[in-house]
């Protein structure tokens, strides 16, 4: 659940270490650490042979693998071409990182070739998986050893925020399902606001000031760093048909509404249900923190001139939190500002246990977070670092990003959350879980607010029927490159 230790093995397991201070991160980000990287040497390490770059480009543009392969299959007919030492493709979210996105894209194209750098507004990750990787696999199947070696060695660098990294990781999971291995591991240049995925794997928490020199070192680390495993979690929401929800990008409608049959559902179910599913890598939350995030996102969309970068985003977010009643909630306030105990029934499957167990929701808790990483809300550590005696007493185990467990904690009022965020105290520990089932019933509440990896939404609730949120681990790991 946070920064993995370096390993000499190709695939290492991430383990918890103390988060770096922002000062150290800033120094690293400014490019004041490390040796100079020769531009031409780096280009030779990264660049694929020209015929492969063109074949991938044409395959994606035409959405026709066979035509591209037919055009370029003679590119290595003499067998003289060899794969580069560290073939790589880069996805750039040019809308992230303020004014630096387009400049970063241009710089990367100079360092490794235009055809290996994709702007996400032009090429979606699934298009690269289907047509770009598909082209390499087709050429390899025809006996092109250079294409095969390139496919086997390939790594991916994502320049964007946590949402962008999750988008790419989600597209790569299709390779597992289709048996198209190996799956390329992912490195990060952080361009978002929180950048918790980036922090967790040693890539820092902010876009570096001296970025032009730092980019070369990032590219070198991306092709040489050890590979670490990361759990990913599938979320299924089932609600009464007819309820209108505006889901975020990460949630998609699905016809598969089957909940785990090992847990009996109390009460009646409606005749028809609407279901949405998605995958998260960092956290899922319900309650006041998601409500604040939802309002902030709408404010930013309505007045984009207010949010010009990570620092201004955080200032506006902090100010908006104060207006939402999290810090001062009188007893007669709107029901939506009270605790979650009256609307949520929570069951979990604990470590090495196949049976569901009901977990009481503390009445003071106004936000519940299920956390996968050990970095939350721009590098905070709300779970803390519990001592071994405490873990044993509570039946917990030490947290890791690939342990198949989520840490579930609660936040009370805004003051409690503030002390947790500055790490003066830990959050309210609720459980560790290998699977979670939340049953949500409206009562006086008309809506609940939820978010998944920073994407919030308003979840309508019914007085008559429950909505269900079920979270299970995806049966294979995502792969990340350790940037330490």
Shape: globular
Strand proportion, as a percent range, falls in 15-25%
Number of strands: 20
Helix content: 25-40%
How many distinct helices? 14
Termini distance?
Answer: 15 Å
**What does the main sheet amount to?**
7 strands, antiparallel
Radius of gyration: 23 Å
Strand order of the largest sheet: 8-9-7-19-16-11-12
Q: Report the uncertain regions.
A: 1-32
Mean pLDDT: 82
Structural class: alpha+beta
Detailed description of the structure:
It contains 14 helices and 20 strands. The protein has helices spanning 22-29, 39-46, 50-62, 65-72, 100-112, 125-141, 145-153, 162-177, 196-200, 211-224, 288-302, 310-323, 388-394, 414-421, and strands at residues 11-12, 88-92, 117-119, 155-160, 186-190, 227-230, 233-240, 252-254, 273-280, 283-287, 344-349, 357-359, 367-371, 406-411, 428-433, 435-440, 447-452, 455-460, 467-473, 478-481. It has a 7-stranded antiparallel β-sheet with strand order 8-9-7-19-16-11-12, with no helix packed on it. Strands 15-14-13-10-17-18 form a 6-stranded antiparallel β-sheet. Mean pLDDT is 82; it is low at 1-32.
Quick overview of this protein structure:
The chain has 484 residues and is of the alpha+beta class.
Based on the model shown, name its key terms.
EC 2.7.1.107, single chain, globular, 20 strands, disordered N terminus, alpha+beta, Diacylglycerol_kinase_pln, 484 residues
Helix-strand blueprint:
Elements: E1 11-12, H1 22-29, H2 39-46, H3 50-62, H4 65-72, E2 88-92, H5 100-112, E3 117-119, H6 125-141, H7 145-153, E4 155-160, H8 162-177, E5 186-190, H9 196-200, H10 211-224, E6 227-230, E7 233-240, E8 252-254, E9 273-280, E10 283-287, H11 288-302, H12 310-323, E11 344-349, E12 357-359, E13 367-371, H13 388-394, E14 406-411, H14 414-421, E15 428-433, E16 435-440, E17 447-452, E18 455-460, E19 467-473, E20 478-481
Parallel strand pairs: 1-6, 2-3, 2-4, 4-5
Antiparallel strand pairs: 6-20, 7-9, 7-19, 8-9, 10-13, 10-17, 11-12, 11-16, 13-14, 14-15, 16-19, 17-18
